[in-house]
Amino acid sequence: MTDIEKTLENKSVRPTAMRILIYKYMAEKEIAVALTDIENAFEKAERTTLYRTLKTFEEKGIVHQIDDGTNISKFALCEPGCNCELDQDLHLHFHCSNCDKTVCLTEHKIPHINLPTGYIAEDANLVIKGICDTCSQH
Amino acid sequence: MTDIEKTLENKSVRPTAMRILIYKYMAEKEIAVALTDIENAFEKAERTTLYRTLKTFEEKGIVHQIDDGTNISKFALCEPGCNCELDQDLHLHFHCSNCDKTVCLTEHKIPHINLPTGYIAEDANLVIKGICDTCSQH
DNA sequence: CATTAAATGCACTACAGTTGCATTCATAAT
DNA sequence: ATTATGAATGCAACTGTAGTGCATTTAATG
Ligand SMILES: [Mn+2]
Ligand SMILES: [Mn+2]
Ligand SMILES: [Zn+2]
Ligand SMILES: [Zn+2]
C-alpha cells in the first residue's frame, strides 16, 4: 500500500485508481488547480468524477477550495495537520496576475480583524493579487 | 439637475434614465448588489444594459466590484473620495452566511501583509464570512 | 433638421458548476 | 464461489452567470 493510499484511507476515502491519480497530480503541482486543469491533465478523465472527487476530498479534509477572485474554484492539498474544515487554517493565498497561478502561502496566516459590534466572524478569505516570485524575476 | 445626475456627470457618465435608476437603487440599498438583484428590482430592465451600466460605473469609479466568495459578482457604490480604481481603498467586506448579504466595511482597511521574497502585491481582497449584525440579534 | 456617437434591446454564445440516473466496480455476506 | 449491497463512475442533460455581436433607438451637436 502506497503513501497516497494510506493518506486517503486515513481520511476515510476509498483509494480508487482515479482518486490516487488526482491526489498524485495535485501533490506534484505546487500550485492550486482548477477542475479544468485536472480534466486537461488526464485525457480519459470524466468531468463529473473529478468534480465529485474534489468534493469528497474537500469534505474529508484532504483538499481545500480556494476562491482566488478569478471566479474559477481552485483546489489545493491540505498541509499535514491543517484543520481547514474547522476554519482554523486561515492562511492567505496569492494570485499572480501575470501567469495566473494561485499558490497557498501556508505560513502566512490571516491576521485577526476587529469587526463592528454585532458581526460574528466564522471564516475569512484573503487573496493578494500581484506578481509572483517566478514572474518578478523576468 | 439632481444630486445623482451631478454625481454621474462629475464622473463623466451620461446620466440616462436607467443609469439614474440603478444609481438610486444602489444608494438606497445599504448592501452590495448582484446584477440579478437589479434585474429583479426593475421588471422592465434589460440584463445587458444593467451589465454594461455596472461595467461603465466601475470603470469610472462610481461602483466597485466585490468578490465575496459566492461566485456571484456584487457591486457597491464607492464612498466619496474612494479611489478603488487605483487599488488604494482596500477595505474589507463581510458576507453573512445566514442572510447571504454582503456589506462593505469601509472603515476597516486590509492590514499590510508581508509576503515571501519575490512576491509583489498589487491588490488585495479580504472577505470575512459569518453572521451579520442583524442576524446575530435573533 | 441632419449628423453622429452613445446607449439600449435582442439574440446568441461560452463555460463553470451541478444534478439525475444508469452502469460498473469493489466489498462483504451467504 | 456466488450473490447481494452500496459506493464510485460515466453519460447526458440542465442551470445560471458572464460576455459578445449587431441592429435599433436615443440624445447631443451644429
Ligand atoms: Mn491554501
Ligand atoms: Mn466595498
Ligand atoms: Zn506569476
Ligand atoms: Zn445576515
Features:
homodimer; 138 residues; alpha+beta; Arc Repressor Mutant, subunit A; three-stranded antiparallel sheet; three-stranded mixed sheet; 5 helices; 6 strands; binds manganese (II) ion; binds zinc ion; DNA-binding
Detailed description of the structure:
Chains A, B: It comes from Maribacter arcticus. The structure is a homodimer of 138-residue chains. The first copy, chain A, contains 5 helices and 6 strands. By secondary structure, the first copy, chain A, is an alpha+beta fold. Chain A has a single domain, classed as Arc Repressor Mutant, subunit A, CATH 1.10.10.10. The N and C termini of chain A lie far apart (43 Å). At the A-B interface, strand 6 and helix 5 of A face strand 6 and helix 5 of B. Strand 6 of chain A pairs antiparallel with strand 6 of chain B, so a sheet runs across the interface. The site of one manganese (II) ion (MN) has 6 residues of chain B, from strand 2 and strand 4. One zinc ion (ZN) binds next to helix 5 of chain B. The structure holds a DNA duplex (30 and 30 nucleotides).
